Amino acid sequence: MDNATNNFYDAIAEYYPLFYKDWETQLEREGLGLKAIFRDKGVKRVLDAACGIGTQSIPLAKLGYDVTAIDPSAGMLQKARQIAIEHDVLGEIQFEQADFAHLSEKVSGEFDAILCKGNALPHLLTDEEIEHTLYIFSELLRPGGLLILGLRDFEQFMEYRPRLLPGFVHDYEDENQQFITFDVWDWDEGPPVVATQNLFIIKGIGENYKTIKRTVSFRPLSLDEVRVVLLENGFEEVHEQPDRWEQVLVARKPE
Ligand SMILES: C[S@@+](CC[C@H](N)C(=O)[O-])C[C@H]1O[C@@H](n2cnc3c(N)ncnc32)[C@H](O)[C@@H]1O
Known about the structure:
Layout: H1 3-12, H2 23-38, E1 45-48, H3 57-62, E2 66-71, H4 74-86, E3 93-97, H5 103-106, E4 111-116, H6 127-140, E5 141-151, H7 155-158, E6 164-172, E7 177-188, E8 194-205, E9 208-218, H8 223-232, E10 236-241, E11 247-252
Parallel strand pairs: 1-2, 1-4, 2-3, 4-5
Antiparallel strand pairs: 5-11, 6-7, 7-8, 8-9, 10-11
The structure holds S-adenosylmethionine (SAM).
């Protein structure tokens, strides 16, 4: 895992809940959405392979699933543990620190399901890294186990390559301050094409605002490209699952 990506997530971990309109509602939605995907599939043991601050792991633990949550960013893991305490599930989640390439050093299969939500896979910039990660996921899944990938579908951006994307505005009346985010994207023609997100976080009130900028890169994959890569790497029954936040692909390891 490259240090730039880790530095980005370490730096934004404390702000991460603010990237959703309503963080607590998002947790509830993630839990219910995944429960619907797992229904009648015999899912008990789940590996959250890019857990971040626990957006999926925490609601799943609350719903009684056996959750192992891994992420390479120490900052994201620290925030995840803090939120797990607030939700009274710290003891229900096994937290580990590793990137995809080193997953097998921290956990062993078989898992009934592996999650990789929140656009984590596109941080891998080469075909080889993506294929190696799918191989590791497959090794850790039981036959018939599910892989759930949550992604931003970059297809819509590829023609016009937008530079400016709006984020969120939160007004904190209790703290008497406002919090605003937006992105400026840089496009590198490659090959492969790489999109760099410059995330601006602005905090303040009245005429005094302070700006933080943090940068991270993505391989701007389309959902169709990911679908094909999954099939080429031995997964089957690849289908899209409705999700309000991102595009979600569910795939199955053959029996
Ligand atoms: C946008 S966050 C999503 C976290 C969480 N799943 C969610 O939906 O909120 C992306 C996460 O991917 C992790 N990540 C980035 N590169 C990774 C890699 N090579 N291996 C594993 N995780 C990675 C980051 O540390 C970060 O926590």
